[in-house]
Amino acid sequence: MKNHQEMKHYSEQEASSIKKVETERNTACYVLDPVEWGIHTNGTEAIKTTEGLNAALAYAKNAGYPEVFIPKGIYLIHGVGKNEFAPEREAGVKVPSHMKLTLDYEAELKVEPNSSKGYSCIYLREVENVSISGGILTGDLDEHVFSTDPIKTHEWGFGIYLHGSRNVSIENMKIRKFTGDCIFLGSVGVLGIDPDYAEPEKVTIRNCSLDGARRNNISITAGEHILVENNEITNAGTVKGTMPKAGIDIEGYGEGDIDYEVPCKIVVRGNFFRGNFRSSILNFNGYEVVIEGNHSDNTISYGNGTDTVISGNVLVRTDGTLTAIAGQRVSQGFDGNNVTIVGNIIKGFGSGIDARGKDVVVTGNTISHLGDTSGIGIDVWEAENIWVADNAVHRSQGLAYRVDSSKDVQLLNNKAFQSGRYAVEVDKSTEVILRGNVFNQCKGGIQITNRGKKDTQVLAEGNHIDFTGYTGQPAYAISFDKNSDVELKSNYIKGTRNVAIYGENTAGRAVKVADNEITASLSATAAIQIDGGQFGEFVGNRITFNRMATGGYGIILKNSENAIIAQNSIYSNTGHALSGSIVTEHSKATKVLNNLAVKGSMKLNTDTDMDRGNMVV
User: Which segments constitute the Right handed beta helix domain (predicted)?
Assistant: First the structure.
């Protein structure tokens, strides 16, 4: 019999040995032996293979291994669970908490072809501290048996289903051809109703290839602190597609102003998007979403999202179609979108940026080579409190900028170069300020209209409009219709070969044209021509002509009443006289005061006009 000292020594040795084994397991990788677990590696026996994989993962977990390695092979996965309502739940390969699952780069988990509306290849329910990397996940899209029942859309087949899990990373994987999504992030339960509600938290998807899912390559319906970084995301919705067919769709479930799932604090950075059917990224209703530094050939949309930044992305197409960056409206229950679109490069789309909703800043973007004559560089539509500043739109067939059916919009210090239509169109919009913009070699400058029942009210101040170098027949530098209130102030217009400022006015509308410089007009028929209206103000404008023949008019008013034309200077820089410097003979009661006319007579209504302090040279 061992004495007390021997027993004590034995116990210490045994404890040391056990501790050594535990330490080795805690730092070691369990290399799965398929034969030991009855797993087939030739793409057969889905149920046995799936059961074997799950048994091996459970063993490694219980034995204290932090990592499991799956070797090369084709592993057929039974992905359909027993839940008839949601067969994608509790199905496929289930990775336990505190586990790193590593697949050989030639290890493929392939879902067994089925006719189920949902399935999962890998399923994570409320686990934590899980890492999955390497290998290939393949869905059954090419072989799936789709039901003819319209209720069963079969859009719930997932590569990886994160069901309310936290601290999860998915890296260096190739995931493809699922009937739903390559990766789906969703909540357990419903917010505000289920006491056990749990959403994915702290999830990273990095350096993966996500290709050809039938619905979206990534869907995020719930989650917080989600990072999607440096992935290649391609061809969503292109085969047997079902909406929304996006590379990434951020879309929580809600009704009215009540959220039942909340996708929040999401960063989409440095990804490469190509060939996704409807859009690259759709932030339908996410909160605090940052979309930055991605390469895309399709639309990035802030949708109804709140607190979104779209920054530093490069969006390029070659067919002149689609809109590069888009929005929709304000989410119910909120007073604004609070969106910033900054520093993006857009080329070759049909339109550039579509700003909608409320509280949107669009600044520092470069847009070029838009291929559609109906396209628009930056379009503000049904929007309020919009700031568009320091953008450049050039070499495009359509409009550079448009404001339509909007309120409180400012376009400041923007550039338009070689636009095939007007640089700016404003329609059915109020509290619009166009200030400090530069428009060169565009067909037209600023067009202001009111084609609907709403008002239009615009201040255009300090803009630079230069037709020098434009080879086509230009439109007006600035024009407005009879249903608009306009103030045109301190604008610089050069080289026009049409009427520089043309407007139609009617009683009750305010028109003020003041301190503008219209210079180097070559063959312009008139510098300022207004038809109709009452109490218009035309003050302090400086107009010069470089005509090569006699003709042209400085300021012409037709069918107007009680206007004032004061302190303007109108002259020809050549030896050719103007047909008229100021012409009001077809208007009534015009006050013509202290104007200077050089080489151009004044033709006034001598019966009703006031002619004081004018000098004709």
Answer: 335-457, 477-595
